[in-house]
Amino acid sequence: xxxxxxxxxxxxxxxxxxxxxxxxxxxxxxxxxxxxxxxxxxxxxxxxxxxxxxxxxxxxxxxxxxxxxxxxxxxxxxxxxxxxxxxxxxxxxxxxxxxxxxxxxxxxxxxxxxxxxxxxxxxxxxxxxxxxxxxxxxxxxxxxxxxxxxxxxxxxxxxxxxxxxxxxxxxxxxxxxxxxxxxxxxxxxxxxxxxxxxxxxxxxxxxxxxxxxxx
Length: 215
Fold this sequence. Notes:
Elements: H1 2-27, H2 31-46, H3 50-64, H4 68-77, H5 80-90, H6 100-107, H7 112-121, H8 129-144, H9 151-165, H10 170-179, H11 189-196, H12 201-214
């Protein structure tokens, strides 16, 4: 019941609240109502519940960034914590499914050529976070981990994977689960042994879980 309720709330934000804000933030025809809505968004930003903050970022605030004029007005209405959250999203301090590809390529520009190659195969369509992980990052790790020729880069990559696995955004964690760490189960013992040298605490815990389930 709880899960269904949560999905329903996100649907409301995506299909009702966000479209309303997109229109109202351009027209600014009802500033009093907008003030009340952004006070509510500030309460969400201050919540101790990571799912509430994730909903705020991924289903309300990030979609609003597509409309430049409306986004400028939204920024003026945001409370302190809401504004801080978006600063952290925009500079990559907070990882979300929407900003994950951009943040990864910014931190690892050496993967730009591999990313662009996949764009060609995909007729220029931008890669999703899952596609980036499955088609660019995981193949690199499979190739690099047996010999470990670039340990500094591997260390940075597994540091980034740890950031993903502790993200508030379930979709970001799911990328790790389904497209990266799941590669290193008991069937890839050599790669797993080398990967564990670079894994941080939470990544290693999940890897241990995969191994146990595969025994």
